[in-house]
Write a structure and sequence with these properties.
With 336 residues, this protein is of the alpha+beta class. Helices cover 23% and strands 31% of the residues. The chain binds zinc ion (2 copies).
Length: 336
Amino acid sequence: MSGEVLCERCGSELKEGELRCPVCGRFTPPPEKQDDCGADDGGSQKARARVIRCTSCRAAVTYSPEAQNLRCAYCGEVAEVETPCNPIDETEKFYPFTVTREAAEEGLKTFWSRAKWYHHKDVAAKGTLTELRATWWPAWLCSADASFFWTADTTVGAGRSKWAPHAGRIDKKLDKFCVSASRGLTLRETSAIIDGYDLTSFESAPRGPEQATVECFELPRSQARQCILERINSYGLALVKTEVPELLEVQSRRVSTAGLLSFLRTENVSLPAYILAYRYKNRLYRVVINGQDASVSCGEYPVSVLKVAAVVLMVTVLIAVSIFVLLAALGFILAI
Ligand SMILES: [Zn+2]
Ligand SMILES: [Zn+2]
């Protein structure tokens, strides 16, 4: 984080090596020297650090000699060592593990207790923990002033035609908006566990359970910025659909948004999580538990096919009976 360079037009932060503002595209000449991929000065030493790449899910973690078994933290598959040619972004802030392995195991029990009616209820009694790995997953924490301009057709003021066009704008200050950079965790998993983190206290080095791995940032910077902007835009679309009064409680279609950002700042952070696998009747299920709050988790339950089939059958019978009663009543009315 040396000498911050800001875009003159929109105030967004330019990372080292960026010549164009990722938000508004304004060209900004480099302040002094720039180094590129493959440069062999001291700055690229980190870039040439070795990583362990999973042969199955392709997630990469930084290589540490004390990690004895080359197994992927996410799926348990065999991983291989590689030396990437692109520079790897560094984590600026590590959020520490505050949940111990034992507490994570308790967290699994909490997770099991939340099984829904269509899951096997005996999962807590018959499920066995087979794998528990600690890892830091990479994310970008973004702050920006965002304006989302929206357009949509709604039924309001449509007169005789069904739809009328509407447009508007919604402003939002983004503060520590989290965009996952993880390959090993799905978007569903990271969105589910993000709320359990305390984003106020961080450290400059990873501190946590033994053999915890650190997943790398991998996207080249331009792609990373693209990914961040896309995520902010889809957040904007969701925001417009749920918060714009003109669109609530009326029918709408063709809702679209265009985001305008200024003062965008991103930080590369690593967030702690436990990846667990449990076995239930010869099948493995995966659960992800927040490394700072074991009650925050996301994962799979064994679905009871029998229960689902019973409900489908009941509904079918109910519909058939009501149709029969209706027809009988109709026949009766017509007969008199
Ligand atoms: Zn700009
Ligand atoms: Zn994997």
